Amino acid sequence: MFKDNLKYGLVLGTLSPFIGMLGFYFWKFSIYSLKNFITALAVQKTILTSMISFSLLINAIIFTIFLNKNQDQTAKGIFITTVIWAVFAIALKLFY
Q1: Residue range(s) defining the domain that contains residue 10
Q2: By three-state DSSP, how is residue 96 classified?
Q3: How far is CA 87 from CA 1, 11, 49, 80, 91, in A?
């Protein structure tokens, strides 16, 4: 459907974790309003890091799909952003 493109992979890898974060909210915290959930994220940093880690599963799935379709440049872009997101999650866990 799409050409094998590094930029497309970077955009897809950057935006897809937000879908995972939304899925995490609906899976674990849907009984709370979105406002209360965001407040809980500010207070409980462990929720934020676990939510980011869970959202990276979406990137792993998309990465695998593009790798199996032999669209290596797109998969490379997804991998790069996944590493950046993972470093961000580890930094939050260690320093915040």
Answers
A1: 6-95
A2: coil
A3: 31, 18, 11, 11, 6
